[in-house]
Design a protein that fits this description.
The chain is α+β, with helices and mostly antiparallel strands. The protein is built from 11 helices and 19 strands. Helix 8 links the parallel strand 15 and strand 16. Helix 6 runs parallel beside helix 7 and helix 7 runs parallel beside helix 8.
């Protein structure tokens, strides 16, 4: 999602009960104009019959908002109408602070389904997993309700508790999880040094994330005399955020080349973002980089992972990412309402799109330290109803190839825990850097896609 609001205002006249005397410019032919008139007449006929015959009195506002929601929900999974509450929630998420549990959720067949918990939030610490279904909140059934209603119930006063009833694929019975709400103050960037390796965890792309990543790299350099062996950039369970911050984070590690481009309705207009536009030079000074992704890594996370992969600047490791390759803009309607509208697909430097297919890791590594790894359902863009189709038609049949049967991935979660490994993917990445050192980047060049010519 772009961080700026487009200066555009939409108006509706259908509530007046009249057909406009003129038609929009996009209805070019007489046939198109006639078809538009028929559709408007049909809408007004339905509107009038509901007003006259529904079992209860219905306010015009309710019908109008319902009509708008229906219009936008017919487009794609990420477009929608933002009422006052949605508008406020969106702004607080952009600012990086809000009250709640720390869950990214979607709606599937009337049930709330977890895309991923945000790292180091109440939901994450309570053990919520990607693929969990939430059926009840404080004992009240939410199946069949709306996603907005469920989200509103999960948010609340910091310090208050809420009981989630969870159905997890692979488990025989539903179970309850008690979570205490907290201010989700997304400090999007955390860093530490382990065994001379800089670990940089990015949990979201909110205001200032690029600046914080650059500072994290400098802090690692100051903490390791002679410089670190390399960096691990952890983008797992990062749902994305502001496009410009994804460009800035990529720019921390790149000193040349395209990072991402947008392709919308007008094929002649292709906005592009390049390295050196936001951060001068490669702040890491060419040190090896491993990028960790999983099924919860989406949107802005995929821009960063894909840009570093295409430029052979980072070795991508983990699981196939979420696959959200579209850009949303917020178009204000009033001071308190707006539209969240998909305006473009983004493309990586090689010209490929991650829509549906996601980022395929150079080295697939299952999260063996998760005891539910094999049975847990992973949610991706291609699972969402009305998801955008990848216009490049990536029909890769190897996207979900099971890597867990390889000899190096045979340990169980219990065995790993007994040996002190709490996070197998991170452990494997650190072992790779320690074993290969600077040669890690040779593997990235061998595995990564070759950048295509710009078009």
């Amino acid at each position: 999602m772009k961080k700026f609001f487009a200066a555009s205002v939409a108006t509706a006249v259908l509530a007046l009960g009249v057909i406009p005397s003129s038609v929009p410019a996009y209805a070019q032919t007489d046939r198109e104009k006639e078809e538009l008139y028929r559709e408007l007449e049909q809408f007004l006929a339905v509107y009038e019959k509901v007003k006259a015959n529904y079992v209860d009195d219905v306010e015009d506002k309710q019908l109008m908002e319902g009509a708008i929601q229906g219009m936008l929900s017919s487009l794609d999974a990420h477009s929608g109408f933002l009422d006052r509450s949605d508008f406020e929630n969106l702004q607080t998420q952009i600012d990086g602070e809000y009250g709640g549990l720390g869950l990214s959720v979607t709606m599937e067949e009337g049930a709330v389904k977890v895309i991923a918990p945000t790292a180091d939030t109440p939901a994450d610490r309570a053990g919520m997993k990607s693929g969990d279904y939430i059926t009840h909140l404080d004992g009240n059934l939410i199946v069949g309700g709306t996603l907005d209603e469920a989200v509103q119930q999960m948010r609340g006063k910091p310090g208050s508790a809420i009981k989630l009833t969870v159905v997890r694929p692979g488990r025989d019975k539903a179970f309850d999880v008690m979570i205490t709400r907290a201010i989700i103050d997304l400090k999007p960037v955390k860093w530490e040094v382990q065994d001379k390796i800089g670990l940089i965890t990015i949990s979201a792309f909110s205001e200032g994330t690029g600046k914080d990543v650059a500072e994290a790299v400098r802090n690692v350099q100051r903490a390791v005399p002679g410089g670190p062996l390399g960096y691990i950039v952890d983008l797992r369970s990062n749902p994305g955020g502001i496009l410009q911050e994804a460009v800035a984070v990529s720019d921390v590690f790149l000193d040349d080349g395209e990072i991402v481009s947008e392709r919308g309705r007008d094929k002649r207009q292709v906005p592009r973002w390049y390295a050196e536009s936001m951060v001068p030079g490669d702040v890491t000074k060419g040190a090896p980089v491993i990028v960790l992704v999983d099924a919860g890594s989406a949107s802005a996370s995929e821009i960063v992972a894909g840009a570093l992969q295409d430029h052979h600047r980072g070795l991508v490791m983990g699981e196939r990412s979420f696959g959200k390759g579209s850009v949303q803009n917020v178009l204000p309607l009033t001071r308190e309402t707006g539209l969240r509208l998909t305006i473009a697909r983004y493309h990586l430097p090689s010209g490929r799109s991650v829509q549906e297919g996601g980022i395929k890791p150079d080295i697939p590594v299952p999260q063996l330290s998760d005891p539910d790894y094999q049975s847990r359902t992973k949610i991706r863009e291609s699972d969402l109803r009305r998801h955008l189709i990848n216009e490049l038609k990536d029909d890769d049949k190897e996207l979900e190839k099971d890597q867990s049967k390889e000899p190096r991935f045979q340990q169980t979660a219990e065995q790993l825990k007994a040996s002190g490994v709490e996070d197998f993917q991170l452990y494997y990445a650190m072992q790779t850097l320690q074993r290969l050192g600077k040669n890690t980047m040779k593997m990235a060049k061998r595995q990564g896609p070759v950048a295509a010519a710009r078009n």
